[in-house]
Amino acid sequence: MHSWIIAVWFLFLGLGVGSFLNVVIDRAQSNRGLGGRSACDFCHKTLLWFDLIPVLSYVFLGGKCRFCSKRLSLQYPLVEALTGLLYVLVFLFFWQAQPLYFISMLCIVTLSVVIAITDMKYQIIPDWAVVLLFLIGISINIDRIFYYFAGSLIGVFFLWIIYHLSQGKAMGYGDVKLIAAQGMILSLPFLFISLYISFLLGGLYSVPLLAMRKKKMTSQIPFGPFLVIGFLISTFVSYGW
After folding, report:
1. Could you read off the pLDDT of 86-141 as tens digits, one per residue?
2. Rounded to whole angstroms, how far apart are CA atoms 133 and 180?
3. Which of 78, 97, 131, 237 is found 20 to 30 A from 104 (Cα to Cα)?
4. Residue 129 host element (H or E)
5. Whole-model pTM?
6. Rg of the chain on CA atoms, in Å
């Protein structure tokens, strides 16, 4: 089978998983179960099956609800498309890797999407996603567990200092827990690279907002998405070699 056919298959798989992640992201924060049909956020009418086709339904409906014509959140197609793209990248980078690493990378990108979007939307990093990420790190690096655990502690200490000195304004405690899990997956050099990318992107995002006075120095800007971006870039580079 040609590799591009498999890549397309992973794209569709990622789109479907992304659609499910939208449900997880929103229902987990409202303490709703994952069962039951999806409904409009505004009129609460149950959506039809052809309104749930990843990305395409959003495009065909013009980004509006079929029933009440309210504008739907861009979160839905973006999460679907992002997850699909990441699944294709996992295939391109890791299709020759051992099954454990390949499956672990699919899980890592899936959890990372949940963490980034949840933090952006609700300013909270779900503990269950961080714990799963931590356990994945243990499973793929069990032969060097103490080395990765030491690196994780260094990352935690670094972000905890920032969290403590800023009294939680520059960084949340969820970010500290997140770096603990990421440190179990990335070796020390790449963990530092991940942090560098995260702070660089965070600065590039925050400084213009402060300059345009759209944000104040006391405003809280979710740092989790930047940690996720730096982490994924470093992970693809380190494990893809």
Report:
1. 999 999 998 888 888 899 999 999 999 999 999 999 999 999 999 999 999 999 99
2. 9
3. 78
4. helix 127-140
5. 0.90
6. 19
d(CA 104, CA 164): 33
- One domain for residues 149 and 227: yes
CA separation for the pair 126, 189 (Å, rounded): 26
Token reading at 40: 């409009």
Question: Token digits for 108?
Answer: 């890592």
Contact, 48 vs 38, CB < 8 A? no
CB atoms within 10 A of CB 112: 25
Question: pLDDT band at 217, cuts 50/70/90?
Answer: very low
* Nearest one of 117, 118, 130 to 156, comparing CA atoms: 130
Query: Number of H helices and number of E strands within the chain?
Result: 9, 0
| Residue 64 lies in domain | 1-96
Cα 71–chain centre separation: 24
- CA distances to 16, 22, 109 from 28, rounded to whole Å, are 18, 10, 18
Residue type, 132: L
Angle at 27 between CA 21 and CA 31, to 5 degrees: 145
Beta bridge partners of 71: 64
Q: How many domains are there within the chain?
A: 2
Residues 92 and 111 in one domain: no
Residue in the block written with tokens 């567990």? 145
